[in-house]
Fold these 2 entries.
Entry 1:
Amino acid sequence: MRTHVAIIGAGPAGLMLARLLELAGVDAIIIERRSPDYVLGRIRAGVLEQGTVELMDRAQAAERMHREGHIHHGVELSFDGDRQRIDFSALVGRHVVVYGQTEVTRDLMAARQLASIYDAEDVELHDFDGKPYVTYRKDGASHRIDCDFIAGCDGYHGVSRRSVPQSALTTFERVYPFGWLGILVDKPPVAEELIYAHHSRGFALCSQRSLTRSRYYVQVPADEDPGAWSDDRFWDELRSRLNPETAEALQTGPSIEKSVAPLRSFVAEPLRFGRLFLAGDAAHIVPPTGAKGLNLAMSDVAVLADALIEHFIEGSQAGIDGYSAKVLNRIWKAERFSWWMTNLLHTFPDTGAFGRRIQRAEFDYLASSVAAQQSLAENYVGLLG
Ligand code: RFL
Ligand code: PHB
């Protein structure tokens, strides 16, 4: 087989890239390790920036998102029970849309006209400094796809980044000493908007997927076993971290999903190696506190799609040469914001009383300063540049 672009991974990054290329008439094949059902079963992000919404429009996959997604004009921060609303629309004139990553993935899968290869085993990348090709096994047979470029969209644990020689790659990493225990429940959300809560027992987040489905998280030790958490234990812990009125209003029920996600900041540099590009979680990880991971993956592939389209349609090399520097600029700003939100809202085992006072001062500053609120809002809805 031969294609212009071999895309490794059918997460949101790979699916969006494939769709943008397809619409521009550039041939691409997706090679994914898992089955479509497995990919659709992963519960992850829920908040879309305006740029991601516009990209779904461009991908002609936005109809259901506009119908079922919910526009959110602000979020609430809570610090030891004291509440502060951040009004995005008033502060920066923009908003976010709450629509699950699972639904984004489903819509992009449905929009794609060309076939993708799922259940591909032992995917390997070859010769991306010369004439690239990808090999894999499926149903016991070996396959090879020759291509002009490879897009590594295979997430943090994927094969693409690992295929790059160590000496060519610089990585920057911070592993946090905690994770998020998340629960999905078919009950109406506790509030209209998301609530990010700092509490001495740890961080908590009240999020949602629809008017009837809610998503809640509590900070737990990084190695926590979700099996140790009955639903009742989860609800008790969540209530203890919320202000009393919110705790009172919480509607609980049996969980339909429960899992622990570790928190990590990670960036690889550069993001182009000859004819291989890295995009999305393959290139960087942010802790979920800023709701940036999916949005960053989408902005990477928007830049990459334009670069590849320019190359194939206009014969220009400029976009390809500029890809890494251009996306890294945005990536580091999102890393900074996600790290900052994480520092403000979690309890850290080793910062002690001084660290807690600094967090409190940061919250009080936010509560009293329009400039500080504007900075948070501008970053949360997505930076324009
Ligand atoms: P994905 O989604 O991990 O997809 C990668 C795909 O590659 C496949 N793959 C391979 N395929 C072939 N060969 C191999 N060797 C392969 N290895 C892996 C995988 O099976 C998979 O299908 O990466 P992508 O596309 O870059 O998308 C990134 C996002 O999924 C991620 O950044 C977000 O989910 C992060 N995130 C959030 N982002 C937001 O923007 N807003 C949020 O509100 C938000 N909340 C979250 C989150 C992530 C979370 N977890 C579980 C990490 C909340 C949580 C709890
Ligand atoms: C989610 O709904 O899963 C979610 C929302 C906001 C975040 C992280 C996760 O910051």
Entry 2:
Amino acid sequence: MTCILGLETSCDETAAAVVRDGRHVLSNVVAAQHKLHERYRGVVPEIASRAHLQNINPVVHEALDQAGVSLHDLDAIAVGHRPGLIGSLLVGVSAAKTLAWASNKPLIGVDHVRAHLHAATLTPKMVSDTVLSDSSEHSGGGPLTFPALGLVVSGGHTSLYAMNSPTDLTLIGSTIDDAVGEAYDKAAVILNVGYPGGPKLDKLAQTGNPKSHDLPRSMLGKDSLDFSFSGLKTAVLYTVRGHPKGRGAAARFQRSVEDLTEQQITDIASSFQAAAVDAVIKKLKRAVQHMTDQDQPPRSLVIGGGVSANSLLRTRVAELGKQLDLAVRIPAFAYCLDNAAMIAGLAHTHYQSDDFADLDLPAIASGSI
Ligand code: KG4
Ligand code: ZN
């Protein structure tokens, strides 16, 4: 039995979790900072790092307490050390190094994006995690079957991976401009639906008419596995405010979002959601075909990252799995957004192959696979 403490501070969530054998979540504590960033309608890096400094010790204590273990009982300390906001990453990395040094336990550096693809294999133990997970399509954890097609949809990534194991991944497609979560956040600002934008927009979209506006689904080249969401974002802007006169800072729009009725805003949100999810599903189909053409037909489809909490994406991915006869893995809600259970979980694979880090483990802002 292996018990690993994971830390995650790559963006604006301070998180710590204890996971047994890479899968069984004994605790999963997340201190979100939404209130601090709300007035700026986006994450302010300096504020995020400062809040991590305040939160990290209480969050680690809480994770150990809830799991009923002490530092002494752990087999390793793991930390998400890339990619992310550098000031934020440094807090988690420094804390993990200190804990590893003080307790004489091995240190493990985990890639945040790969960890998102591990989230769907976790088994919730916490009552709160279970309540948050939806029973309809969540697979309930368990190992993946390989080859697998992996999709990470978050605020920083929209990436497709051909996977031969949890750590043997090939990037086969990614966004050429905005990530899908970023597009949600920007559209939420344009539609003035509140913060955090992604979940608010998702909720609103569920009550609108997705066919009210024909917004673009950018496919790029005929065989392209890459994504583009900047055209969709601009289409939302023009739908809300009309085509501008002039360019850049001199652009003058015909109206503002305040001129729209609630129903109009809801219908645009719904049409945006339909277009964004449609684009992702179309690329997933292409990626399955691509892997099949490469003599590596996927046996399962796994998604992860904040946008995997999206109601429409979850339903459409589950439908796609049925349609293509693929085992589908969708994380429980508690493991979609940034969390440390996915870090501690994937760290188990590193632990099994003696892949440990030294105390000079760097925090790396970009450069995930
Ligand atoms: O994985 P994550 O917590 O952080 C990154 O690694 O980026 O993902 C955050 C992103 C944000 O852009 C957020 O708006 C989006 O995930 N998000 C959603 C939903 N919940 C979170 N987007 C659409 N629908 C949701 N329900
Ligand atoms: Zn993330």
